[in-house]
Amino acid sequence: MRRMALALAVVAAITASSAMLPCGNDALAQAGCCMQRSSLDAAWRPLRGVPLQECRGRNERDRDNVFDESGLVWWNVRCRL
User: Fold this and answer.
1) Torsions phi, psi of 57, nearest 5?
2) Does the predicted model carry a pTM greater than 0.70?
3) What is the Cα–Cα distance from 59 to 34, expressed in whole angstroms?
4) What's the rounded Cα separation, in Å, for the pair 36 and 79?
5) Residue 57 and residue 60: Cα distance in Å, rounded?
6) Which residue blocks in 1-81 are alpha helix, DSSP H?
7) 10 Å Cβ neighbour count for 40?
8) Is the pLDDT of residue 21 over 60?
9) What is the DSSP letter of 38?
10) Nearest of 31, 30, 36 to residue 62 by alpha carbon
11) Considering the chain, what percentage of its residues have pLDDT values greater than 70?
């Protein structure tokens, strides 16, 4: 019974500590990749090796949030290259 309580306490502590980590868009974006398309009708293609800051620069012409899947450039946080 004590082991079960200890195990639950450890799991609760891990869950609570991970919930307190900063989780802004930039923190989540580190695992993503920049996506670009030539026109609004074209398919998205990943840009390998383009960091978030450069992707933001490319997205300035769209005048939207780089994390929104709209326009010609966006940062896909689910992308794994």
Assistant:
1) -65, -40
2) no
3) 10
4) 13
5) 5
6) 2-19, 25-29, 52-59
7) 8
8) no
9) S
10) 36
11) 67
